[in-house]
Amino acid sequence: MAELPSSAECVIVGGGVVGCSLAYHLARAGMRPLLLERGDFGAGSTARAAGGVRQQFTTEVNVRVGMLSRQLLEQFEDEVGSTADLRQIGYLFVASDAEQMAQFERNVVMQHAAGLDDVRVVSASEVSELVPDLNVADLIGGTFCPTDGLAGPNEVTSGYVSAARRLGAHVVEDVAVETIESDPRGACAVVAAGSRISTRMVVNCAGPHAGVVGAMAGIDVPVKPFRRHVFITESFSLARDPPFTVDMRTSFYFHPEGEGLMLGMSDPAEPSSFDTNVDWTFLEHLVEHATERLPALERAAIKTGWAGLYEVSPDNQAIVGESQLPGFWLCCGFSGHGFMQAPAVGLLLAQQITGVGAQIDLSPFSPERFARGETTPETAVI
């Protein structure tokens, strides 16, 4: 285990992609943060992410954050020095009822106003052109954004870690935080692996475990973990390579993965837990909806599957900002969007922490919004 310093300008708790992005952006801004991860960097929820990168959301702040993340991923190799494995295959959302379609149309008006110019409403026939194998009999239409797509969770995380190290950040794996101390002025120390690290700034990037880390500081962080499954088919091809396709009625989604497809769907009945064991009975439920929307899947075989954890906030929006304990910051609660928002949020929070001023207003993510009753739920959640 690496030796821990006795003090640090900033201690980041949690080495998933969000914490690693923040460590990199703080180091790039001239700070020397200490990043602590209890396991391996990016081995938790990040490693189990579906890899989606999109800008199509129902709140303006998420659209703007998505656009900034896309920009940062497009320039990732030049700036960070390694590939992000960005594949802009597009995201296609499809609707089978009039109410959902009307919401899609309102979304696109807002998205255009926010600057996302290339998203568009598509008819059922255009959906069929994009994914010829899709059952469109009951579809009204959808929305499509060609600059959405996929990136590599491992590539992005490891790229940020390596670049953060080069810039002077102290990044340490296999070190679990035990407690967070405070005094009348606020956060004052982190105790990890038996060592006390004095600091006036702690950032909770612990993902599904953000509530646990918050409790160490005496702060109630309204983030709960929920299991989500993904499955990979054996080698299997469609008439043409599809975009990342989402059926909003059932939440079933699929996208190309290697020589097959990645399949996923949320389960509204899933209770909050830290369980990441695969429930293979859920696959039967998924297959029922999957083969209805994509009949070609009847000839596919499942190669493997895994489960990861979403870190869900009460309004499905990230929680980013300083808590009621001075010096104890939150950067968590991404509700399934952590990987795709990590590049932008790491930069924006680093700008806020270093006093530059975030280039996108982060007040909709403020931890205080729940007490004020000023929440705007994000509904484009898969």
Automatic annotation (TrEMBL):
It comes from the Bacteria. One of its GO terms (molecular function) is oxidoreductase activity. Residues 10-351 form the FAD dependent oxidoreductase domain. GO terms for cellular component: cytoplasm. InterPro entries: FAD-dep_OxRdtase, FAD/NAD-bd_sf. Transmembrane segments: none annotated. Gene3D superfamilies: D-Amino Acid Oxidase, subunit A, domain 2, FAD/NAD(P)-binding domain. Keywords: Oxidoreductase. It holds the Pfam family DAO. SUPFAM superfamilies: FAD-linked reductases, C-terminal domain, FAD/NAD(P)-binding domain. This is FAD-binding oxidoreductase.
